[in-house]
Amino acid sequence: MLAYTIRRILLVIPTLLAVAVLVFFVLRVVPGDIVEIKLAAEGGIISAEEIQKEKERLGLDDPIMVQFYKYMIGLPRGDLGISLWTENNVSEEIMSRIGLSFELAILSTILAVLIAFPLGTISALYRGSILDYVIRIITIGGIAVPSFWFGMLLIMLILATFGNLPPLGTISIFDDPKTNLYQMIWPALSVGYRYSSVVARMLRSSILEVLSEDYIRTARAKGVFERIVIVKHGMRNALLPTVTVIGLEFAFLLGGLVVTESVFNLNGIGKLFVDSVVRNDLNLLQGLVLTVATGFVLVNLIIDLLYAALDPRIRYQK
Amino acid sequence: MSQPPLLDVRNLQVEFKLKNGTVRAVDNVSFQVNRGEFLSIVGESGCGKSVTALSIMKLLPKRVAEIKADYVKFDGQDITNLSENEMRKIRGRRMSMIFQEPMTSLNPVLTIGDQLTEPLITHLEMSEEEANNRAIELLNMVGIPEPEKRLTQYPHQFSGGMRQRVMIAIGLACEPDLIIADEPTTALDVTIQAQILELLKDICNRLGVAIIMITHNLGVVAAYADKVNVMYAARIVEKGGASEIFGKPSHPYTIGLLRSVPRMDKKRGGRLATIEGLPPNLMAPPSGCRFKPRCPMAADTCDSSPELKERSKGKNHFTACFYSDEANKKGASIYVSDKDKFKPIKVKKDKPVLSVRGLKQHFGVSFRSGWLSSVSGTVKAVDDISFDVYPGETVGLVGESGCGKTSVGRAILHLNLPTGGELKFNEKELNQKSVALVRQDMQVIFQDPFSSLNPRMTIGQILEEPLKVHKIETDEVARLKRVSELLTKVGLYPYMRDRYPHELSGGQRQRVGIARALCMEPKIIICDEPVSALDVSVQAQIINLLEDLQRELGIAYLFIAHDLAVVKHISHKVIVMYLGKVMEIGDSDTIYGEPKHPYTKALLDAAPIPDPNIERGREKIILKGELPSPLNPPKGCVFSSRCNFVTEDCRKASPELVDFDNNHLAACINIEGGK
Predict the structure, then answer these.
(1) Is B130 part of any domain?
(2) Distance from CA of B82 to the nearest CA of A (A)
(3) Reduced to 3 states, what is the DSSP secondary structure of residue B44?
(4) What mean pLDDT comes out for the span B607-630?
(5) Looking at the domain A99-202+236-315, which fold is it?
(6) Closest to A214 (Cβ–Cβ): which among B99, B123, B157?
(7) Is B166 in contact with B116 (CB distance < 8 Å)?
């Protein structure tokens, strides 16, 4: 297990390096020029000289390999350069937003797992019963209904029940956990419904598949208690595909939820993403992509390690 | 014999409620098993033998299966109406079960120790330490070396044979009174099968455990069973002592079953007796005797159902047939007609159609072995093999799985590029380029009739395709005619052109596979385990078909198989392989009659003969251990690690093939009389 873990962790380094290089060059191919957009936004007549001057100031007129060199040099120190638009430090800008997205992702995952596990298991064990049908309707609804629309319904529900909305503006969980949670639970629920539906359906089908395996019959033939047959022999095998789905969904949430964030007026990664694309803010955009990609890679690492912990065949892989 | 039987089943009936109807998979089955007795239930797939076993253990899915019985008494107690929890207390404690698939019957994510101690902790309430000690004892008993270390390992670290040993250990853990073994050795090689069966029989004899063994292998039954139940289409058609069933079979089905298996102890020649047709669909079984549509003795009387009747008082031999006396008297002759008697074809040995010299197929492999290091090596799947195949000849290639027999076939067809040696087809050299020119003349039939036909193409399209591709028949009408001819030739009907593969049975699909190979009018067909996925009665039909086609068209076969009796029946010449090398090669009758090489002898000993008198009388050499890793084969003679006659010299150099007489060659330095 140790050897596997170390090997798997070491593999992260070349993966991230490849992502960094790819992000840099792919974004340079995108047409459009931030300086022109920026100056145009300020109004007035722009001369070619002014544009040139601005480019020089931002370092955009350097040869591409020089820009690449500066970018790569900065990476190990966590220096992602400055935003070409606001001229704030990119790392700081991202750090100020990522916390919220991260919290949202974690909260939704917790909610999703709490909802999905009982639903998926019950649905599988009582296959064909009315309970199963009800659960399957609920979960197919979760997949069919867009999260933001469900979010709007939630807002109306809060208004109708409490008469007011949670306070606007970001309140850190470390300063005021109660208010923060009250703020965050709603968007988490709106995302978590879909999330839990995907997981519950996955869990249901993998439990059903596992329960028809030969080793389950063996366990029953041994006279083991049915409870143990399901939990010890069944669940652990059924968890394998489910863990993958949970991980992928989690990584997806890290990338920000543009619409849900605007419905609940949250300052997450999603909004920053849209802004940076619209403004052609290359530095910010590449910082964001790199951050999200790192999140993906790390989550995948965790999934792989979990997999190895659950399944010895992977641990001893040749 | 005043003691009541251990298991007494009366009128057991199992129905499956399916979407499109009800299937009665077991129909009024009654039998008894005494303490320490070995009962065998035989029959072809779908006859209800496994369902019988599972219903006794009550392991069928309750959603679809309905079990009814007058009673099922286990040790005097009727278990038909026991609650799930009471039944659970019996399962694993007093009766346990060993399943067919050792590869999938153990939980891949739990250690062997965990799975082995589970019944001990559940039923005998042992502490973990006691259970562990008992588990070590059990693993020792079933012959697994280093049990302490093995307990902490997972199933994927065990070979198939070893896993089946673990399953036996689990079954025996609580010292039950009855073990039900459902095809326990079907997935294993003959040498391993012999080890496992000997072990099971030996332990159960010692502990006085009764065994119900479900199998389709009549040889296994002959070797071990005290009593036999023969099942056909959900019913028992004949039951009795093993010597009665094998010696005086009196149901036409039993007779047919016994006659359709090729036998190693008989001289070659003649067709196999076959039971025509297929077992009935249990969704709508024929009324009256279910065997009637396939029975050569069927008469009007058979429209009503025959009862199981005792043949003569006190003999405990029951048959469900109106004409059992007649069947008993006539025996196999009810199946054999004049056209079935023929002499094997004489092969003219002037120009070989295929000539193989020093064929080598080495695979480079590399894998991780821990911390970032990796190991690489070479697997010599085929190592220096030479033989000739003449027109109209069948050459059999036998050996345990992993011996390289399939690789030989693939290398000849250039499906894998051979890494050395010389191949000649009709005296022209075969290489990567020239193989395309002779592809038409070299065809192949695969093992699995289910996955080797494209499910989205009709039979007609499948057979037409090669005719189109090779531009043999460009006219569409002529092509259709050709396809119909081919179907007729392999014993199917032209109207089956429009069917899809899933609409055909396994045997019919294999016939399509043969038709597909035939449509190119090949000179040689490589048959890779063509009958091993089929039931015995269907297997006999396919073997007869292959032989008829050979007589008619003069095709040569390279027949790759693990079933020694089948290979003996069909082959003129036999090659015995072990770890990529030829151990022995010679005429079929010579190899089987006077085997020289210790490996050939052991293989022949391991394969049971369906006759209890011969089977129980003969002395057997049972090979120990399993096939060594091909990555790291033993030094010198590759067989030295398992050979019972090994000497110091064997480990020094790889033995050459020595000619004994009349093209009978063997590679062993310890045989007298080599030239």
Answers:
(1) no
(2) 14
(3) coil
(4) 83
(5) MetI-like fold (1.10.3720)
(6) B99
(7) yes
